[in-house]
Amino acid sequence: TFIYGGRVVGEAQVQSLDCRLVAEPSGSQCGMEQVVFPKPDPREPTQRLLSQIERGVLVASNSRGLFVQRLCPIPVSWNAPQAPPGPGPHLLPSNECVELFRTTYFCRDLARYFQGLGPPPKFQVTLNFWEESPSPSHT
To answer: Where's the Interferon regulatory factor-3 domain (predicted)?
Structure first.
């Protein structure tokens, strides 16, 4: 789900385990599915932000979990079940693979939930793309 300024502007579903989030489609990605950000109104601040996403973000999933790698120069923060303790934002390092969701933790927490020993497990991952330095009021 794509949210610009607190408003849902689009949704996409992928058919493969790996994809690349990009601002513009590229013909050079052999076999990797591309998810293109919806086009904002030209007057929106999001337009400037998308122009900086060029190489995008790689997203990969497998039986171990969900992994992302930031290739674009702009800051990207994340929130997910495996987020480090403490207040965010938690920034993705550049060109480094980060595990955002671990299947074994989810299955463990799901089993605990079914036994009445805990809350339902968290499963949602959120990526926030920032224009400049992250501040809670400007995603």
So the answer is: 1-138
Q: Residue 4 burial by CB count (10 A; 0-12/13-18/19+): exposed, middle or buried? A: buried
pTM of the model: 0.82
Q: How many domains does the chain have?
A: 1
Q: Which domain holds residue 112?
A: 2-129
Question: What span, in angstroms and rounded, lies between the C-alpha atoms of 86 and 3?
Answer: 24
Least confident range from 2-16, 100-114, 125-139: namely: 125-139
Residue 84 lies in a domain: yes
Query: Which CATH number characterizes residue 43's domain?
Result: 2.60.200.10
What pLDDT is stored for residue 27 in this prediction?
72
Three-state DSSP state, 88: coil
